[in-house]
Amino acid sequence: MGSWLNIVEIELGVMTRQCLGRRIPSLKLLRDELTVWESTRNNPKKVLIGNLQLMLHELSLSDSIHSLKVDSVLGWYEWGITMNIIGNIIWLLCGGLIACIAWCISGLILCITIIGIPFGVQCFKIVLFVLWPFGKEIELGNFGAGGLFLNIIWLIVFGWGFAVAHLIIGILFCITIIGIPFGLQHFKFAKLGLIPFGARIYYSAN
What is the pTM (predicted TM-score) of this model? Predict the structure, then answer.
């Protein structure tokens, strides 16, 4: 019983799409339309051609929607990259370059002491982030027992001060509303400055 009910449901759906998909002003016109549709539907050759045309039309709509979605995603991605570049240029002009140089000097001084080389390397890692922060994200936690020990030393000596300073600066930027994008970068610095050993910096278009 289910099979013929399915056939009826399919036929009603086809009739609705092909014949009743618009407003028909009179009952006579409705009957004429249904008569023409019925005779066409009962012709196997015309049914096959009609189904093929309907499938092609649906595929065309699907391709158009897919194309629009792809174009929208690509446009959003390109817009994100452009805004990141603009943000990084403004960042460099407003003190990012100076901060980069300061971290380079700190890294060199630590490396000269020999024993401070591991900490100097982290300073250079921070330099790469400070130089071009927009479009980059940080992932923490990829360290072993040695990394944990070095992170604790870093945190006790100057990491906590670095993190708190950037946290305060980030809050001040966010209060201005217009400075929120720059405040978010300072929050990233605070996170990286707190636990730099094992941290991974990666690019993101967001």
Answer: 0.57
